[in-house]
Write a structure and sequence with these properties.
Layout: H1 8-19, H2 23-36, E1 41-47, E2 53-58, H3 68-71, H4 98-104, E3 107-113, E4 120-126, E5 129-130, E6 134-136, E7 141-147, H5 154-158, H6 163-180, E8 185-190, E9 193-197, H7 204-212, H8 214-219, E10 221-227, E11 230-236, E12 249-253, E13 256-258, H9 261-270, E14 283-288, E15 294-295, E16 306-307, H10 310-328, H11 352-358, E17 396-401, E18 405-410, E19 413-418, H12 419-437, E20 442-452, H13 455-462, H14 465-470, E21 474-477, E22 482-489, H15 497-505, H16 516-531, H17 541-552, E23 567-571, H18 572-578
Parallel strand pairs: 1-8, 12-14
Antiparallel strand pairs: 1-2, 2-7, 3-4, 3-7, 4-5, 4-6, 8-9, 10-11, 11-14, 12-13, 15-16, 17-18, 18-19, 19-23, 20-22, 21-22
Length: 585
């Protein structure tokens, strides 16, 4: 094929592919333009998850009538003139690509009027084809409508996620910019329903309450650190408040939301030795740096940056976070464990324990879903290798160690069993068996619990209400991001219903479209984790024996529902080598 120049339309669509990945990308570019224009009020209307309509209006400086056509042209900007200006960027936008890229893949309309002019202007652009400039009587500011996004690039439209995912992305984006600019009043509507409204009074905790709920917003710790001309401030979570992933760690650099693995790593390292492995903090951190120390021109969507002196910035984040943690959090004292006397009475076991006790004699391994009957093997005589896959030999309980582990003897050695992980497995298989036949027994609450979730999570959570109901939860919408819990599974009696719902939300990945069985499996695993007997909890001999017997009937007794091992096997051969009876190898 001979070399030739691409048509302007193709060039524009290629450029748009780098800047406009999804509806949230459009919202980001338009909101950043409004903030650069000095807007104090920004209203965003979304229809059809952004595929049908994205409308952003503001009361900013507006665009002069004779510059409107230039504003929708490629590489037209008012924010820099020379290449040297790239290293002194103080605005969110600077390339002059956003409006032209958006207009090339949508039906685009811009209406604007500066405060000093009596008549505004309107321009329509369809698929990159610009119409004539028209006069318009409009309020001061700018209004941009983006309709039928990707209508002329159907392949890109097919790659978009389901509507709930796209709405969730927009919610998360707008809420984070509301946090970064608390003095600006943000309003967000989805299909004429309000999703976010901020007062613009400059109070970040008020916005944190909308993002994470009032209870979590109260717990977040303020962090502030200054080193020369570099400043860090924001909010971090105490060590008792964690997440199972890094999604709730947010960084803004000079007002720009960025994704930085090194910065996230620096913040997580500040929690070193304070958090369990696999748990991560919540954080909303704002870095204020000299513009010449940050290169923002390294990513098409401006989502990544580079630093002139990265070690210094990482150190600022790590030290500032650590100081805040030590200032707010008491240092735990280290001492010898307090041993219980023989007369000590066992603590009360979770009500979930009764469920496994009641069902002891009604469930056998062959009755579990998908399990076939195996040839009979005498477990009292067989080693672990002789038994069907995953099945346990007959175990003889010896006792409890460290208030967390059970010690049992088998025909082929010693077994150390994690009581929490083992009980999780027992409850999980009970719940899934019940769910396969009918709904899990639920307990109606005397007083419904109210749960407020971040807008980004609320949209995903609302799509899983049917799966939750099948597992014993009765949850109904009670506002844009608020839900009312009317009933919980009987296994969770005695637990905080609101806290249980928040824990479940962590397992809903917004970029997944799981089957119902997969959703129920994840929810059931979280329910069992919360209901299972805890490490450090005293168990009577009868309770220990009951747990061991229940575990032996499980289909997959060697791991908990999250994949952690429930037991460690020390073979007789290993013990003999350790004691020197067979020498060392």
């Amino acid at each position: 094929m001979p070399i030739h120049l691409l048509a302007d339309e193709v060039v524009s669509q290629i450029a748009a592919g780098e800047v406009v990945e999804r509806p949230a990308s459009v919202v980001k570019e338009l909101v950043e333009n409004s903030l650069d224009a000095g807007a104090r009020n920004i209203a965003i209307r979304i229809e059809g998850a952004g595929k049908r309509l994205i409308e952003v209006s503001d009361d900013g400086a507006g665009i002069a009538r004779d510059e409107v056509l230039l504003a929708v042209a490629r590489h037209a900007t008012s924010k820099l003139r020379t290449a040297e200006d790239l290293f002194h960027i103080t605005t969110l936008g600077f390339r002059g690509e956003a409006l032209a890229s958006i207009a090339s893949v949508s039906r685009f309309a811009i209406t604007t009027r500066p405060a000093g002019e009596h008549l505004g202007a309107r321009v329509l652009v369809e698929g990159g084809q610009t119409g004539p400039l028209e006069g318009a009587g409009v309020p001061a500011g700018t209004l941009i409508r983006v309709e039928d996004l990707f209508y002329n690039v159907p392949a890109r439209l097919k790659f978009l996620k389901q509507d709930s995912t796209e709405r969730s992305q927009i919610d998360g984006l707008v809420t984070r910019y509301a946090l970064a600019y608390p003095q600006v009043r943000f309003q967000l509507w989805h299909d004429n329903r309000p999703a976010l409204q901020t007062s613009g009074n400059g109070d970040r905790r008020e916005i944190l309450a909308q993002l994470y709920g009032v209870e979590i917003a109260r717990q977040l710790l303020e962090v502030s650190s200054d080193e020369d001309a570099r400043r860090m401030d924001g909010f971090i979570s105490p060590v008792a408040l964690t997440r199972s992933n890094r999604r709730d760690i947010t960084f803004f650099i000079n007002g720009r939301w960025v994704q930085s693995v090194p910065l996230t790593t620096a913040l997580v390292q500040a929690y070193h030795t304070l958090l369990m492995v696999g748990r991560f903090p919540l954080a909303v951190v704002f870095l204020h740096l000299p513009p010449e120390e940050v290169d923002v021109n390294v990513h098409p969507a401006k989502a990544e940056v580079r630093f002139r002196d990265p070690e210094r910035i990482f150190s600022l984040v790590q030290r500032g976070t650590r100081r805040a943690l030590l200032a707010y959090s008491p240092v735990p004292s280290v001492g010898m464990p307090q041993w219980k006397t023989a007369a000590a009475q066992p603590q009360a076991i979770d009500p979930a324990w009764n469920m496994s006790a009641e069902l002891q004699n009604t469930i056998r391994p062959a009755e579990l879903p998908g399990e076939s009957v195996q040839p009979a093997v005498n477990p009292s005589l067989a080693s672990a290798d002789d038994l069907p896959s995953g099945q346990l030999p007959l175990l003889r309980l010896i006792g409890q160690v460290g208030l967390s582990y059970l010690v049992a003897e088998g025909p082929d050695g010693l077994y150390l069993i994690d009581q929490h992980a083992a009980h999780e497995r027992v409850l999980f298989e009970r719940l899934m068996k019940q769910a396969a036949g009918q709904r899990i027994p639920a307990q109606t609450l005397l007083e419904p619990a109210i749960v407020t979730l971040p807008a980004q999570q609320a949209g995903v959570f609302s799509g899983q209400l049917d799966a939750l109901e099948h597992l014993g939860f009765q949850v109904e919408p009670f506002g844009p991001t608020t839900f009312r819990v009317r009933a919980i599974p009987s296994v969770l009696l005695g637990s905080d219903p609101a806290a249980a719902v928040r824990v479940l939300v962590e397992d809903f990945e917004e970029d997944e479209s799981p089957l119902r069985d997969e959703v129920e499996g994840r929810v059931a695993a979280r329910v069992c984790k919360r209901a299972a007997v805890k490490a450090g909890q005293v168990m009577s001999m009868d309770e220990q024996k009951k747990l061991l017997a229940d575990l032996e009937t499980c289909q997959s007794p060697r791991t908990c529902p999250h994949g952690r091992p429930t037991m460690i096997h020390l073979s007789v051969d290993l013990l003999e080598r350790q004691f020197g009876r067979r020498g060392s190898r």
